[in-house]
Amino acid sequence: MDGIISKHEIDIRDGKRERMDMMDILLRISEDKTSDLKLTKADIKGLFLDLFLGSTEETSVALQWALAELLNHPKALKKLQDEIDTTVGLKRLVEESDIPNLPYLRAVIKETLRLHPSLPLVFRKCREDSKINGFPIAKNSRIAINLYATNRDPKVWEDAAEFEPERFLINAINTIGLADEEDMKGQNFSYVPFGGGRRGCPGANLATSALHITLAALIQCFHWKIKGAEKVNMEEGAGFSVPMAHPLVCYPISRVNLSDILLIN
Ligand code: HEM
């Protein structure tokens, strides 16, 4: 990251940047003494590391959990494959414009993020003395918010520990009863895979799009076989993003003519 920042600085100094990218803009702001926004190099480095780590680690961990849950729930896997076959077919690769027509796919991703939020704990600092649910919180206290526990609260979620994408389908018995597009915004405090408020995840839309399209393509193009077992071991491992303790190993068996489908696209 230091190398990338210095390269940008040298290129800016030598007038080599014809089109400014996000880092150029932030570096200029950091050097502008008159700017209201005070940015240090460390801030810029932190922001880009957040973006890179957030966009890769959390999304790939969520994708692994989604596939693992589907492998352990063959009925849900079949239902998803049928939805994709009926809506998209096998002659072209699923694409982003198909996602609005794939409600079960969206429900599978929501249910995966409910059970396996890839950032299970978030932190806040209290700016003033306040009370939450009658508990006094002193100014400057650090608060840890347990998104993992919230998403599995049995007072809100029926069969909270079970993988049941149907709970997110409109008209199904949906204990939080939110419209589809509202679920991810963190406004409902029962379902907060991306946190909420002004520090809520800015990558939520990008992450859900990537998860939808990648999972859909994996399910459209392949049958999956678990390595050496009937069921995937769903034990949770240690780590900030709660990865699988035993990384998912499974074999793809092609169900489409890959060269045809990829050439058409
Ligand atoms: C499944 C994927 C992802 C999950 C579950 C996730 C979840 C979260 C959560 C829970 C937070 C803390 C929110 C809060 O404190 O209220 C967060 C923050 C953040 N996320 Fe994500 N995220 C994901 C993907 C991404 C992607 C793809 C990006 C960027 C391209 C991203 C960028 C960030 C950044 C920059 C922050 C810090 C925001 C701030 O402190 O103001 N995340 N994410």
Question: What can you see in these coordinates?
Answer:
The strands form 3 sheets. A two-stranded antiparallel sheet has the order 1-4. Strands 2-3 form a two-stranded antiparallel sheet. Strands 5-6 form a two-stranded antiparallel sheet. It contains 8 helices and 6 strands. It is mainly alpha-helical and 265 residues long. Helix 3 (41-72) crosses helix 5 and helix 3 runs parallel beside helix 7 (204-221). The radius of gyration is 22 Å and the shape is globular. Helices cover 42% and strands 10% of the residues. Mean pLDDT is 88; it is low at 172-179. It binds protoporphyrin IX containing FE (HEM). Protoporphyrin IX containing FE is lined by residues 50-51, 54-55, 58-59, 62, 113, 117-119, 122, 147, 193-196, 199-203, 206-207. Pfam families: p450 (PF00067). Heme binds at residue 201. This is 3,9-dihydroxypterocarpan 6A-monooxygenase-like.
N→C terminal distance: 35 Å
**Which spans have pLDDT < 50 for at least 5 consecutive residues?**
172-179
Number of strands: 6
How many individual helices? 8
Task: Give me some keywords for this one.
265 residues, mainly alpha, 10% strand, binds protoporphyrin IX containing FE, oxidoreductase, Cyt_P450_sf
Provide a brief overview of the structure.
The chain is mainly alpha-helical.
Question: In terms of topology, how is this protein built?
Answer:
Layout: H1 2-13, H2 22-31, H3 41-72, H4 74-87, H5 103-115, E1 121-125, E2 130-132, E3 135-137, E4 142-146, H6 147-151, H7 204-221, E5 222-226, E6 250-254, H8 258-264
Antiparallel strand pairs: 1-4, 2-3, 5-6
Helix pairs in contact: 3-5, 3-7
The structure holds protoporphyrin IX containing FE (HEM).
